[in-house]
Specification:
mainly beta
């Protein structure tokens, strides 16, 4: 629901949003011969969330250049989380969680804006009173928490002329964690990876500073923008990863730690009218410095990522179109300032659309992937698909031939900023699909 009413220089607004979701899940892991038991691990998990956000706001315009707004929000999040596992060869660990979490946010958000076109200033000062009730049925324990979160922000925009624009922004934020922070039992998150709850609420405190420069020439269809950001963070929980037998168990411990993220991104786009082609090129560099506790030892960790991204889109007259996308990603991890791993990933994708006659469309799709699995092992994959579509006014017929090259497996290695994960999927063999759809 969204209602707005204006009365002279005053503006009144009322909004309401409600959502319910239920996410049952069953995860079964078949253990290999390296594990100390042949019994599989099976986890049943269920999470239901009822969420509502009801807001009203009042605004007043002092003059054409300056105005204030005050938003009032009442948010409620009612959650139930239930997990249990049938077996793990660690008898001293709790294998189940059963928690109800009722969180209420009472938010007042005053803001002021000054805008004379060349210079725009916006200052916000949201204040959030959090009222949280937690009932842990597995421990027969009830808790009540209150938090006052203040999150001021300042944004400045300057328009040099019709082409160039620059902006500065700064914000300070306080946040708390979610229902998983207050769990006390194990949760299986991946093959051989488990998370153990600490029963302590996470508290995060961070600043965010950014500068942006942009150029836009609509007549010559040339666009450019660059953004530099810095985000230092302080939090009260630190993840301690321990290895028991062939299992990795991560548990949050109440240790103050720091993290900062630095990034720079640049993007340029140009449309070439004679070639009927749009080209976009972007690049970015991100560095994350944090701390990790592993086997009860705290160590500094640095994660660096470089990304190159190229996209082209060409119209081939009335009979076709062609798109091409290419990504190159370089990931590096450093422990104690010593490089621990470097992995590269390359993805190239093309789509060729052909419109031979009216109502007919042919699509040719190809994809090339290069993944470093380890520092000494890599894998290349090629994929191809063909699709034909015939469209009438109220009906559509399509034929798709997927995985033409009959690839058997797709695998890749990924970072989460600290840990390296290898993932592999068995793929469906080459297959055909004929479908019909109707419109009424």
């Amino acid at each position: 629901m969204d209602l707005t009413k204006r009365n002279g220089n005053n503006v009144f607004k009322l909004t309401s949003f409600t959502r319910y979701s239920n996410q049952p899940q069953k995860l079964t892991v078949s253990l290999d011969s390296l594990i100390y038991s042949e019994q599989n691990v099976c986890q049943n998990a269920s999470r239901s969330i009822f969420y509502t956000d009801n807001a009203t706001s009042w605004g007043y315009k002092f003059n054409p250049k300056s105005r204030i707004f005050v938003d009032f929000n009442l948010q409620a999040s009612l959650e139930d989380l239930n997990t249990n596992m049938n077996f793990i060869p660690l008898p001293e660990k709790n294998l189940s969680n059963d928690i109800r979490w009722n969180r209420f946010n009472y938010i007042v958000s005053p803001s002021y804006t000054y805008d004379n076109y060349f210079f725009v200033l916006n200052f916000g000062f949201p204040v959030n009173l959090v009222d949280l009730y937690v009932n842990d049925y597995s421990l027969d324990k009830k808790d009540h928490y209150n938090y006052l979160l203040v999150n001021p922000s300042l944004n400045l925009i300057y328009n040099f002329n019709e082409f160039w624009k620059s902006s500065l922004s700064a914000e300070y934020r306080n946040e708390i964690g979610d229902i998983f922070d207050l769990t006390n039992g194990l949760i299986m998150s991946n093959y051989r990876y488990f998370k153990e709850g600490s029963g302590v609420m996470e508290k995060r405190e961070y600043q965010n500073y950014s500068w942006r420069l942009s150029f836009r020439d609509a007549i010559n269809t040339l666009f450019f923008n660059m953004r530099i950001s810095y985000r230092p963070m302080k939090q009260n929980l630190l993840s301690n990863r321990t290895f028991i037998k062939n299992y990795s168990i991560s548990k949050e411990q109440e240790i103050e730690n720091h993290r900062d993220i630095r990034s720079i991104r640049a993007q340029m786009g140009k449309y070439f009218n004679g070639l009927k082609t749009n080209i976009s090129l972007s690049t970015s560099y991100t560095q994350t410095n944090s701390e990790q506790k592993q086997q009860n030892t705290i160590m500094p960790v640095t994660y660096k990522m470089i990304l190159l991204d190229l996209k082209t889109d060409t119209k081939l007259g009335e009979w076709g179109a062609f798109t091409y996308k290419a990504y190159w990603i370089n990931n590096r991890n450093y422990f104690h300032e010593t490089e621990n791993a470097e992995l590269n990933q390359t993805i190239q994708n093309f789509n060729f659309f052909i419109f031979p006659v009216k109502k007919w469309q042919i699509k040719l799709q190809g994809e090339y992937l290069y993944n470093d699995i380890t520092s000494n092992l890599s894998k290349e994959l090629f994929f191809g698909d063909i699709g034909v579509k015939y469209q009438l006014k109220s009906m559509e017929f399509s034929f798709d031939w997927t995985n033409i090259l009959n690839q058997k497996e797709y695998s890749y290695t990924s970072f989460d900023g600290v840990n390296t994960f290898y993932t592999g999927y068995n793929l469906r063999p080459t297959n055909f699909l004929f479908s019909m759809s109707f419109k009424y």
